[in-house]
Design brief:
The protein is built from no helices and 28 strands.
């Protein structure tokens, strides 16, 4: 896989305290071959590489697909599929047997560079940059916040059009209220938050985070100091001293929390808040998702999943 340096690959700053919103107060089962050291944070652009598979006479040959520069994975869809937010749009993986998966997309024909992507209450939220064929109505150079109620077939601009590029997004919904949407805008060192489905925004605590994830009424952030947790919509954060030093964090629809730490070890947290370590991910993970026992990771192998906390892996073979 040819990789290029992430455009926002900056050194992790020194540890800090986090204060209030108004200011700082203080392909088959494979064995995983482990490399030494922590890989440089890498991403790349999406490639649809053509290597025609063997086909029967009269059939249309499928083409193997290699994703690069994957920003987000979303599992647990109603049809059992996996959503991939990538450099050239949103793609749906229809999972088959023996690690085979069919790639459909870009969904809706939209070629957005989806830097941030999240789903809450049946609504998808996204941010990033317009693609070469994106209509000017979505804004330039940044998409701001856009939303879709049909999982990417159609999109609507919600706010911050042309202004903001959220490099991470998360959202949650409680009952019939509007979704709570949180974003990381790399031009600001504060959590950006909206409590009305993304229509209006305010700033939360000053914080530097690689990844964020909202679960119920809590907001989690992976920081240089460890896993930070907010119970007040990002106004303040407290470091969870019992949690590992996570790099990526995700949760399923049941609220099960999983993560990958800075040493590439998988972790899962049970309902009692106890963390359990698993095996190690190959290379530097780019995206993470979980659906029950199945954990998906995008890394140098492509997209792989494990159902035993990384003891064994199935690498997906992707075809059109």
């Amino acid at each position: 896989m040819n990789l290029i340096m992430n455009e926002h690959n900056t050194p992790i700053p020194p540890a800090r305290n986090y204060g209030s919103a108004s200011g700082r107060k203080k392909t088959g089962m494979v064995a995983v071959a482990l490399g030494s050291g922590i890989a440089t944070i890498l991403t790349a652009t999406l490639l649809l590489s053509g290597c025609a598979a063997t086909s029967t006479p009269g059939s249309i040959p499928s083409t193997e697909v290699t994703f690069q520069h994957i920003h987000k994975l979303e599992a647990g869809q109603a049809d059992g599929g996996l959503l991939v937010a990538a450099h050239d749009g949103l793609y749906r993986l229809v999972l088959g047997t023996n690690g085979e998966a069919t790639v459909v997309g870009p969904v809706g024909g939209f070629d957005f560079d989806l830097m941030g992507f999240a789903i809450a209450g049946g609504t998808a939220f996204a941010s990033g940059h317009p693609g070469a064929d994106t209509t000017g109505t979505f804004g330039t150079p940044n998409l701001g916040l856009i939303s879709s109620t049909d999982m990417g077939e159609n999109w609507t601009s919600v706010s911050l059009t042309g202004v903001t590029d959220f490099h991470a997004l998360t959202a949650s919904v409680d009952g019939n209220t509007d979704a709570r949407v949180f974003g990381i805008d790399t031009s600001k060192q504060r959590i950006q938050r909206s409590l009305d489905g993304g229509r209006t925004w305010s700033e939360g605590a000053e914080i530097v985070a690689r990844d964020i994830f909202a679960v119920g009424q809590q907001l989690f952030a992976t920081t240089p100091d460890g896993l930070a947790v907010s119970d007040d919509d990002g106004s303040t954060f407290v470091i969870d001293s019992s949690a590992p030093d996570l790099y990526l964090v995700a949760a399923d629809h049941e609220g099960q929390l999983v993560g990958v730490d800075i040493n590439r070890t998988l972790w899962t947290r049970n309902a009692g808040g106890v963390w359990t370590s698993g095996s190690t991910v190959t290379g530097q993970p780019e995206a993470l998702a979980v659906d029950g026992k199945r954990i998906y990771v995008a890394d140098e192998r492509g997209i792989a999943f494990t159902e035993d906390l990384g003891a064994t892996w199935m690498v997906l073979t992707l075809r059109t």
